[in-house]
UniProtKB/TrEMBL annotation:
Gene3D superfamilies linked: 3.30.1490.190, Winged helix-like DNA-binding domain superfamily/Winged helix DNA-binding domain
Pfam families, per the entry: FUR (PF01475)
Record lineage: Bacteria, Bacillati, Actinomycetota, Actinomycetes, Micromonosporales
Family affiliation: Belongs to the Fur family.
Subcellular location: Cytoplasm
Cellular component GO terms held in the UniProt record: cytoplasm
UniProt-recorded name of the protein: Transcriptional repressor
Gene Ontology molecular-function annotations: DNA-binding transcription factor activity; transcription cis-regulatory region binding; zinc ion binding
Amino acid sequence: MTSDFETQLRAVSLRVTRPRLAVLAALRDHPHVDTDTVIALVRTDQPTVSHQAVYDVLRALTEAGLVRRIQPAGATARYECRVGDNHHHVVCRSCGTIADVDCAVGHAPCLTASDDHGFNVDEAEVVYWGTCPGCATDRTSQ
Ligand SMILES: [Zn+2]
Ligand SMILES: [Zn+2]
């Protein structure tokens, strides 16, 4: 599986480094985590990696399109390596848990603006907000 990541990095002309491979692996296993969590995950394998190194890797991978950065209103930025499929997210208002929601249309923009004001619209940002099953259970059991 490491070789998949190497292929991805080479495809966007990024050098293959251990921190880059570790960040991609962390995001594959733990989608929608914030920077601090990525750092903690990478450090389980590479204890000496610095905060700055992980920040730099996340920025490089995001700019190269291998990683998607999402930032629901009021939340810290999260990262995932599922890119290019225009999927959406459902966010728990209570605990901030995020889950993927496949786009029903499959490509952006998946909502047609009733009036595009002459803009060439290329994306509709859709975030579903609600209460996750865990938080819903907590609420009813109180
Ligand atoms: Zn929740
Ligand atoms: Zn996602």
